[in-house]
Amino acid sequence: MDRAQAPEQSASTTVGPFKVAHLASFAEPWAAAIEPGTGNVFVTEQAGTIKFYRPETGRIGTVSGAPAVDYGGQGGLGDIAFAPDYKTSKAIYLSWVEAGEGDTRGAVVGRGQLGCSTPDACTISGLEIIWRQSPKVTGRGHYSHRIAFSPDSKFLFIASGERQKMAPAQDVSNNLGSVVRLNLDGTPAAGNPMAANEGASPQIWSYGHRNILGLKFDMQGRLWDLEHGPAGGDELNLVTPGANYGWPLVSEGSHYGGKAIPAHATRPEFAAPAISWTPVIAPGDFIFYSGAMFTDWRGDALIAGLKAKSIIRVKVEGERASEVARYDMGQRIREIVEAPDGAIYLLEDGEDGRLLHLSPATK
User: Fold this and answer.
1) Does 4 fall in a domain?
2) Distance, CA of 105 to CA of 133 (rounded, Å)
3) 174 and 134 in contact (C-beta within 8 Å)?
């Protein structure tokens, strides 16, 4: 039966502090976002499709108008985000990978409008690319392409991975290995730290990044990124304008072949992580929890762990952070989002990745 016609909800189980309910399954889900007003959970699938889960009915809806994507490796359809003024504009942002010439490819971000003709069917219209990763290069890794809006709703931030090429992360003439700060239409925002530097990209907010899989503002309005290290050295970073985070010149990990990389402590001119992990957790995404269901966790970072197969809870104190708990979910976790009522949604990684609903376990 069509998933849109047959809810997949199952009996709940208890995992650590959570009551866990299986709501639906998706094919290689990558990102999720909750539609303002409806609470519907929109999910991107890496091969290029978008669906949504309706909590009110448990049904799965479909979305037409998704872009053609270059699918393979780490590439395909990526992030999804509703515009700050979505309730009036109906604007929606997507990231994905597009092919270039000569076996090259790169991430892009597009903006369109979402309209829903029925409760179970929506369409994205007028989708236009407003930002491109540049230059396009060979390979199918480290796109990053996470999206975040500033708390004042004025700016669009995009994570741009270094595409497994390392050196571009230290070259500010391109936008690889960086966080960029744009106006909502994709043009470079005024006041960016590299704007006055001849030959530098006016988009850049920070650089020296490797592969950012999470980009979020905390409850104080500060921007943080969560990125994959090499063999060790996954990082949670407080992102500040103009800062250089050191990749590939420094890392808390080492190269996959075993070659050492100098630690951040050896090069204090580079911004050091608030916390790093060796062995790696291989993060999928993260949130700063702000809800009412897990009140003791307000302000903590909750990280979706792929290799860790866990939710990792991190307490942030000033500019430093520490892991305070790890909750074993038994599967690779790709995505984590907070529901309007303070519940937590998780997306498992893989071909049949489940959408899970987490609420406090009954004591």
Assistant:
1) no
2) 9
3) yes
Question: Has residue 217 been placed in a domain?
Answer: yes
Active-site residue among 22, 142, 145, 264? 142
pLDDT above 90 as % of the chain: 96
**Sign of dihedral through CA atoms 75, 80, 83, 86?**
positive
Report residue 315 as tokens.
Answer: 């307490």
**Residue 151: what residue type?**
P
Q: Is 145 a catalytic residue?
A: no
Total structural domains in the chain? 1
pTM tops 0.90, yes or no: yes
Domain for residue 55, yes or no?
yes
Q: Are 162 and 134 in contact (CB under 8 A)?
A: no
Q: pLDDT digit string (tens) for 30-84?
A: 999 999 999 999 999 999 999 999 999 999 999 999 999 999 999 999 999 999 9
* CATH code, 27: 2.120.10.30
Taking only the tens place, the pLDDT of each residue in 101-147 is 999 999 999 999 999 999 999 999 999 999 999 999 999 999 999 99
Long-range pairs of 171-175 with CB within 8 A, sequence gap ≥ 24? 172/197, 172/199, 172/200, 172/201, 172/204, 172/207, 173/199, 173/200, 173/201, 174/134, 174/135, 174/201, 175/133, 175/134, 175/201, 175/203, 175/204
CA dist 150 and 162 (Å) reads 23
- Residue 259: which domain range? 13-360
- Domain presence at residue 5: no
CA distances from residue 253 to 250, 315, 316, 346 in whole angstroms, order as listed: 9, 22, 22, 28
